Each structure stands twice: as structure tokens, then as C-alpha cells.
Amino acid sequence: MNEKPIILIKNLWKSFGKNNVLKGINLTVNKGEALVVLGRSGSGKSIMIKCLVGLIEADKGEINVFGTDITKLRNNELNKIRVRVGFMFQNGALYDSMSVRNNLAFTLKHHTKDLTDQEIEFKINEALENVGLKEAIDKMPSELSGGMRKRIGLARTLIINPEIILYDEPTSGLDTITSREISELIVSIQKKYKASSIIITHDMSCAKMTGNRIMIIKDGVINTEGTYEELKKSTDEWVCSFFS
């Protein structure tokens, strides 16, 4: 018997005023799978994953995470789901007034109560080791390059040992070499943590490296899906435009 999907989205709608952004999105993510979602700017990719963790309220549809429709949950019930989900924001979303150590400690204490100082320190060092930045532990965000901020953002995502990881444009604003390093990091984390992931990107190199499967959003719905190689062979002019 096949396992149920970790994430199942059915007929998801979201509008802002007269702007209909999502017009009936249907999507599944299976356990351990890395799904890439592509789309032009403004296509609703980021809106979709924010709906997935209740940061934005959906207008209509089902969002099943771990078998529970989160659209029907109260905030305290939703928080029980959220602690199992890591969200890597586009800009890293670090607190500028806190050192790297304190950024990570803050997240850990928020998600996991009753940890000793030793356990917190161990988890911080482990998370930084996973992203190759142990030496940055006492630096302030202003002292970090764009690529380093992304890595620390990823460390902060990993520190809660999430079962699902949501990446919002993980390589945006980075040069080609740093983008590749971040993509390689996502792949190694996928192997190590066996997490289920959604990677929102418009970076085709990142999509090729990280995704088991790719979906493309167009006009508020999933236009097409397949592996990188399958989509690359598409005869659809619009799909081909992503590969040119």
C-alpha cells in the first residue's frame, strides 16, 4: 500500500483584491521527495508556500500537511504542525541585532522548550557544521556575505530537525558559484535528513540539481509537471522558454 503524500494541496485559491493569484492549485509532495516549483515573477509560487504554513490565509481549498487540513486549524493546533516544518526565507530573514549564535538559539528556544544550555550549544554547532560555517558563530549578520546569510538561514531552518523544508528562492541574488554551492548544500541536506522539500526557484541550474520532480505555475494553476529531462524535451513554447 502506497504511503499518503506528506503534502496534498487541492483546489487552492488566493486573491488580493481583484488580483487572483492562485486559481485552483493542485499539488502533492511524497515522503522524502524534493519538488521544485517554477514560475515567472508574480505567479504565486511564494504565496503558495506561505499558505502552506498558515502565514497567509487561503481563500478556498484544502491544504493537507501530515494528513491534517491546516485550513481548519486554530492557531495553537497550527503551531504543532509548524514546529515540524522548516522555512528558508528568500532573504535569510536573520535578526540584524543578534549574532549568528543568538539567531539560532532564538529559533531553537522558540520551537523546543526545556533544553539545557549545553544542548542548545551542541545543536547550534551541529547546524553550522551542516552548512560549513562553524567559524561564523559569533559574527553579526552585517558581517556576512549574501551566500553566508543564506547558509545561516538554512542552518536556522535545520536546527529544529524539520520533516518538511520549504525553500523560497534559495539562490536568488547570488553569483553562479555561490548559487551552485547552495544547491549542492540542499542536495546533501536532503540526503542526510530525508526531509520532504518544496523548492521555489526560477534558477534552472538549482532546479536541475535539487528537484526529483518539477511543477510549473502559469496563470494561477499548475501548467505542467515532470522531471527536468522530461520538461526540457517539451514541445510547448512556454515550457521551453524556461530552458533557453
Describe the structure.
InterPro entries: AAA+_ATPase (IPR003593), ABC_transporter-like_ATP-bd (IPR003439), ABC_transporter-like_CS (IPR017871), P-loop_NTPase (IPR027417). The protein is α/β, with parallel strands linked by helices and 244 residues long. It is 36% helix and 25% strand. It is built from 9 helices and 10 strands. The chain has helices at residues 45-52, 75-82, 100-111, 117-130, 146-158, 176-193, 204-210, 228-232, 237-240, and strands spanning 7-16, 19-29, 34-38, 60-65, 68-69, 85-88, 164-168, 196-200, 213-218, 221-226.
What are the SSEs and their pairings?
Layout (H helix, E strand, L loop, with lengths): L6 E10 L2 E11 L4 E5 L6 H8 L7 E6 L2 E2 L5 H8 L2 E4 L11 H12 L5 H14 L15 H13 L5 E5 L7 H18 L2 E5 L3 H7 L2 E6 L2 E6 L1 H5 L4 H4 L4
Parallel strand pairs: 3-8, 3-9, 6-7, 7-8
Antiparallel strand pairs: 1-2, 1-4, 4-5, 9-10
Helix pairs in contact: 4-5, 6-7
Backbone structural class: alpha/beta
Largest sheet geometry: 6 strands, mixed
Determine Rg (CA atoms, Å).
18 Å
- Widest sheet: strand ordering: 6-7-8-3-9-10
Gross morphology is: globular
CATH architecture of the domain at 1-84 and 166-172 and 198-244: 3-Layer(aba) Sandwich
Order of helices and strands: EEEHEEHEHHHEHEHEEHH
CATH topology of the domain at 1-84 and 166-172 and 198-244: Rossmann fold
Helix percentage = 25-40%
First-residue to last-residue Cα separation: 40 Å
Strand content: 15-25%
Name the average pLDDT: 90
Number of helical segments? Answer: 9
Poorly predicted runs of 5 or more residues: none
Domain ABC transporter: 7-244
Organism: Flavobacterium myungsuense
Keywords: ATP-binding, Nucleotide-binding, Transport
Protein name: ABC transporter ATP-binding protein
